[in-house]
């Protein structure tokens, strides 16, 4: 399997622009997670999905952030409008927990976002 | 609320020394899962181990070993005979019983000098 795929790997944009990050989870995994990594706050969970349904978005920092999972093989994280403080590395992860036993999360390579 | 504390921000040792990374966690759940991830300079997050709260057996995998002590809420990670390639940031993480996402510690930056 190719692992979790994220695109783009790097994104540089100007304040106020819309940014869309994309993720393809590992085939067969029914959980998908979005995390953000910054120097100040470390790694923090933004939102997660189970079977394409958002379960907990309490980590989403503001209404400017939104995430969707239209099907089992694709998810997006959108920031509109972007601000310099959104600059971070955004990770997508997926896992399989068919018996509700927690399985390890496999992480994508991350998208490094810079908002000027 | 869950919390993971990695008190060691940075550790620097000379190659071939043994090194232990500390992890202390807080949770109200009776069932939970503990993880270690490695983040090398290239930036990806590499899974190392998962341990559930029912299993306090220590685990060894090559030069890596993990010591889980429920009584002290600790899940420490030891690298024996460290190598330069072990240089990375290591994260300890905690998850509750419901596959609801990882709570990470701040990470320990491990530097192995040749």
Describe what you observe in this structure:
The complex is a heterodimer of chains A (116) and B (114). With 116 residues, chain A is mostly beta strands. Chain A is 0% helix and 53% strand. Chain A has strands spanning 5-7, 10-13, 19-24, 31-38, 42-50, 53-56, 65-71, 74-79, 88-95, 106-107, 111-115. In chain A, strands 2, 4, 5, 6, 9, 10 and 11 form a 7-stranded mixed β-sheet that branches. A 4-stranded antiparallel β-sheet of chain A has the order 1-3-8-7, with no helix packed on it. In chain A, a hairpin with a 3-residue loop joins β4 and β5 (42-50). With 114 residues, chain B is mostly beta strands. Chain B has strands spanning 3-5, 10-14, 19-21, 24-26, 33-39, 46-52, 59-61, 64-69, 74-79, 88-95, 103-104, 108-113. In chain B, the strands form 3 sheets. In chain B, strands 2, 5, 6, 10, 11 and 12 form a 6-stranded mixed β-sheet that branches. In chain B, strands 3-9-8-7 form a 4-stranded antiparallel β-sheet, with no helix packed on it. Chain B has a two-stranded antiparallel ribbon with strand order 1-4. Chain B starts with a strand and ends with a strand. The interface between A and B is medium-sized, with 28 and 22 residues.
